[in-house]
Amino acid sequence: MKEEMAADKSQRIQMIAGVMASIIRIHKVLKICPLCLQADLDQFGEAYWHRTHQLPGVLVCPIHNCLLLEKCHQCNEDFMDQRIQYPALPTAFCRNHHALSEMVRIVEDLRLIGLSDFSNYILKGGYSEYNKEQMYDKYIQRLIRLGYCTATGRVKQREVREFFLSQYNPQFLTQIAVKLPEDNDFNWLSTILRKSRRSQHPLLHILIIQLLWDSPESIKLEGASSPFGFGPWPCLNPISDHHHVNVIPHVKIKRCSNTRRPVGTFECPSCGFTYSRRGPDQDRSAIYTIGRIKKFGPIWISQLEQLSKDHALGLRELSRLMKCDPKTIKRYLIGSISLKNEVNNLTNFQQRKKKRKATPTTKKSNVTPVRVDWAIRDQEINMLIKDAIKKLNNKRVSL
Ligand SMILES: [Zn+2]
Ligand SMILES: [Zn+2]
Ligand SMILES: [Zn+2]
Asked: Would the keyword Cytoplasm turn up in this protein's UniProt record (predicted)?
């Protein structure tokens, strides 16, 4: 936009800024705050037109909460001299010599004051670090949080409209010259919340920001977009004492090389159980689905170890108790090398866990680390394998 301004393509600037195609009328007269006017005169000996007072929808001075004047309250004359192209500096008196500084009306309408504050914040470059797409992303993330949008980004337009109308009454919208969003899919509110290349008037954006956040700064705290929604996500280790409890604070996202779809990996900080899933999630219930188990984690392994010491338990029984298929059990029992590694991890893991303060959502696991005599363990596993093979041969367990 700066480049366009330097080239003085004013029409194009208005188009990019969303002012051109807008339903908001452009203000033809300049506005003034009687208290700012007086303050300027006192401080500088002359007054100037304030940018913050000229914004569409701004009816209140953000400093004094005072109603802005468009014209003299006594003679109804505005402050522009139509004979000259650029307005002269504001003066303490109207053309008919009425003192403007005496026309002070303090506004108490919090919506009007808020609108003035938000506009002023934006004018001072409050969101200059964000581009259009990033702002849109923030709206969507916020709407998801408030339940007005699905995790995949489908905005519940009808509900948003109801929410909008519950916060902004027709009287207020008329006052700031904004059209009521109609009851159809093409009203300005729906359009602004649909990913579109068309720019919309800043005032409409301000209304949305004010609707979704309680202060202009709060928008900055909104998290970045994720195809898996917001954490924490549940641990899906079926044998843990925190199964389905939301304990996983972070997701690692990669792109699937074939499908280009996002793949999220979720590692439980309590038990090490790690699963992945291809996104984006279609709805919030998707958080309970596992695409692939990447690691069972030391607690699961240790549980399997303890159970497998009971030689009476067959592969099927083990798989029932461990809540996974017999193939996996077999793979773990045979792969004693990886088992050693995982159990070593358990010892490190439990030490790490001791250092960490237990979070309220994380219940303590009752599995205690065992000092392992590896010579004996090798013999045990050796026996287990022989046993398992014998059972498999005898019982013809179908896998
Ligand atoms: Zn003022
Ligand atoms: Zn007057
Ligand atoms: Zn877990």
From this structure: no
Query: How far is ligand 1, taken at its centre, from the CA of residue 217, in Å?
Result: 22
Distance 101 CA to ligand 2 centre (A): 11
Of 335, 324, 338, residue with least CA distance to 399: 324
**For residues 219 and 209, is the Cβ–Cβ distance under 8 A?**
yes
Q: Which residues span the domain enclosing 384?
A: 298-395
In order of 17, 202, 260, 308, 311, the CA distances from 21 in angstroms are 10, 12, 36, 72, 78
What tens digit of pLDDT does each residue of 284-324 get?
A: 788 899 999 999 999 998 888 888 887 778 888 888 888 88
Report pLDDT for 219: 84
In the predicted structure, residue 353 carries a pLDDT above the cut 80: no
Among the listed residues 157, 37, 160, 7, the one whose alpha carbon sits nearest the alpha carbon of residue 99:
37
Judgement on whether residues 285 and 314 belong to the same structural domain of the protein: no
Report how far ligand 2's centroid is from the alpha carbon of 26 (Å): 24
**Ligand nearest, relative to CA of residue 73:** 2
Compute, in angstroms, the gap from residue 86 CA to the centroid of ligand 2: 21
Number of domains in the chain: 4
* Cβ proximity of 115 and 57 under 8 Å: yes
In a domain, 10, yes or no: no
Q: Which ligand is nearest to the CA of 353?
A: 3
Pair 111, 84 in one domain: yes
Cα(263) to ligand 3 centroid in Å equals 19
Note the ligand closest to the C-alpha atom of 103.
2
Distance in Å, CA 35 to ligand 1 centroid: 5
What would the mean pLDDT of 197-211 be, rounded to a whole number?
87
Contact 295, 271 (CB under 8 A): no
Q: What is the distance in A from the centroid of ligand 1 to the CA of 209?
A: 24
Q: Does the pLDDT of residue 31 top 70, yes or no?
A: yes
Q: How confident is the model at residue 399 (pLDDT cuts 50, 70, 90)?
A: very low
pLDDT band at 243 (very low <50, low <70, confident <90, very high): very high
